Amino acid sequence: MGLQEVLWTLQNLPRNPLNLLDIFLVAMVFFGILQAVRGTRAATLLRGIAVVVAFVWGLSIVFNLQAFSWLLSITFTGLAIALPVIFQDDLRRWLDRLGRIIQQAEAPGEVLRGDSLIAEITDAAHFLSRRRHGALIVLERETGLQEYADSGVVLDAVVTTELLQTIFFPNTALHDGAVIVRGNRVVAAACTLPISTARRLPDRSMGLRHRASLGISEVSDAVAVVVSEESGRISLVVNGRFIRGLDSERLSMILGEYIEDNQPWRLMTWLQQRLQRV
Fold first, then answer.
1. Which of 8, 40, 76, 258 is the most buried (most CB within 10 A)?
2. 213 neighbors 136 (Cβ within 8 angstroms)
């Protein structure tokens, strides 16, 4: 397809409503794929492939490279066959995730709003701080943390204050490590995180739990809530910075600033509610 054909197609799109529907459905398919790969190692690889393909395809259209376009068409056919083989483990996870979404739609009582999620985490941090039980709760945002979740014990449970207190109760099997929260669910517990190599910390007495929270904030945009086992002090770590000495009110307010506007599950929750009303 040459550049003139592309321009002609774009000019005639509004004349036929079915063309707009066609584009919308294609966009929804790509959106579903992006949501499926989010949080996996495949996301980075697919992003790189998409950039290279878009650049090369645009180059072939602008300069009308017939032979190169033919080579691209053959390459795309090979990729269509190779990608399912390369990402077979990720495909299994995506299908499993789709099944869990359907299961959540059948049990709407488990869906939490953003303010409810923040309240559960804040209350858990308060109780853990009062009892001086060390804790590390990592909230996933745009950067996927699936590779770190795979290092722990899979839970896939709704976030509740009681669950978090139980996980971080001393000497239990899951208390040593991090909890990763995605959306309104605890993905995994006892997860291993990268340890920061920074030499300058706000307090020299900070242990591995604080270094791990700093490390995950350096390699992702995640928000980490840390409760010190020695002092019971609550800290929040984001973008390589510590916010220390937080009480429940300040922790709730700051969490709201970072995750209230960054909730990819809100669209899915809205769709679930609408489907249940039909």
1. 40
2. yes
Q: Give pLDDT, residue 28.
A: 82
pLDDT per residue as tens digits for the range 229-254 = 888 999 999 988 889 889 988 999 99
Cα 227 to Cα 137: distance, rounded to the nearest angstrom:
9
- Surface-to-core class of residue 162, CB atoms within 10 Å of its CB (0-12 exposed, 13-18 middle, 19+ buried): exposed
SS3 235: strand
In this structure, of 8-17, 38-47, 62-71, 262-271, the range with the lowest mean pLDDT score is 262-271
Which residues, 6+ apart, have CB-to-CB distance to 19 below 8 Å? 12, 13
**Residue, of 8 and 119, whose pLDDT is higher:** 119
Q: Cα–Cα distance between 95 and 52 in angstroms, integer? A: 27
Asked if 220 contacts 135 with a C-beta cutoff of 8 angstroms, the reply is: no
Q: Which residues of 173-192 are buried (b: 16+ CB within 10 A; e: fewer)?
A: ebbbbbbbbbbbbbbbbbbe
CATH number of 111-268: 3.40.1700.10
Rounded Cα gap, residues 97 and 100, in angstroms: 5
Adjacent-strand bridge partners of 139: 181, 223
How far apart are the C-alpha atoms of 256 and 69, rounded to whole Å? 49
| Domain regions of the chain by residue span | 3-91, 111-268
